[in-house]
Amino acid sequence: MKRLLPVLGALVLVGAVVAVVVWQRPEAPPPSAPSGDVVLQYANGSQLWRTGEPETPLVRQIVRELGVKAALSPDQLRRSGGAVVVTTIDPKAQSGATTVIREKAAAQPASLRYSITAVDPANGAVRAYAPGNDPAVDHAGGVLKEPGQVFHPFNVVAALQNGQTLDSAYDGRSPRTFPGQVTVHDKANCGERCTVRDALLKSGNVAMFDLVTNVVGIKRVVTAARQAGVPESVDIDGTKTSLLVGEGGGPPNAAVSLGVGEARMRPLDLAAAYATFAAEGTQHDAHFVTHVTDVHGATLYRAVPEGKPAFDQDPARSKDIANQITDVLRQDTVCGIGQAPAAACRHGEYGAVPDQVSHAWMVAYTPQISVAVFVGSDRPATPAVDAGGAVIAGSGLPNDLWLAFKDKLNQW
């Protein structure tokens, strides 16, 4: 498929073409399986896993979804004679993601951890789920991490919903102390009149904090994030954990506007939420399973992805809000300005101590794919540094992984 993808914009083509050729191809007949076996398939019908093989983090996510959405367990399926579970995972995207992590990790400190998660904006299907190089921890859907500046688009959605514009201006001078003796710093140099557009493009923490605390309000920001697709709760190692809440289940504090503290979420959640921007304001729940059949081919479960306007009941208004965000994120030079259609991206870092980043992000999307890349230290209190000893930045190693993954897609 290389002839289809001459440039980055071809990521759009890979979604459009592969969605027809691979991801939405007619369902293959279920393979013959020994009685009692449960077989997991990739989206193209090839085998991903079967009974008796080690369970990977990806397999555990699929099994968990079967229990929640289909009320089916592997034991139940085995007792009934076996089953075939067709997943959303594309084998080439999955192979590309795992290969990129393996190749990049080989040249980096052993203390770094990674994940690459890719979601199809058209229907919420998880196309690639590479949880990293540590088999003991799922760094795609089994950890909660602060998104840092990657959270900023949700602030802007809330602002646009409530009468602000991209040209509305706020005091972005750094450092700035707010009521309650909260001092916010950034390196944006956004100035006394920092527009919402510039605050989003330049990672202007001070202007964002001003916007949220003095104008929009944190409840509206949390609502915007949920509208994009950040779930109310997730399962982490068998424990239900609420997202974007404060003590006692109340609203989080204003630090959430900076993507810290109670803003923690999974890389999978970021990929799914940004897929809503990629889908021009239409939100689909992320999912791993397409359908389940018994050994005779009878359907036991079928996912029915339903899209809905995310940011306004009026689809046109929701689309407008999402596209305003995308138009700004496309202007980031890291994303590849000049390549048409360009990817939109947001990168950021988090560290409990200034200049000691513990993890960093690159989230990039086109209309056909939304990709979240995570890179972090295996010890939260330890700075994440690359092979050259430099502190990890979202525009550095995470961006390298995104570009390498994009190149793998281009080779199809």
From TrEMBL:
Signal peptide: none annotated. Gene3D superfamilies: DD-peptidase/beta-lactamase superfamily (3.40.710.10). The keyword Protein biosynthesis does not apply. Keywords: Glycosyltransferase, Transferase. Pfam families: Transpeptidase. Residues 115-342 form the Penicillin-binding protein transpeptidase domain. SUPFAM superfamilies: beta-lactamase/transpeptidase-like. InterPro entries: Beta-lactam/transpept-like, Glycosyltr_51/Transpeptidase, PCN-bd_Tpept. The keyword Zinc does not apply. PANTHER family: BINDING PROTEIN TRANSPEPTIDASE, PUTATIVE-RELATED, PENICILLIN-BINDING PROTEIN 1A. This is Penicillin-binding protein transpeptidase domain-containing protein. It comes from Lentzea flava.
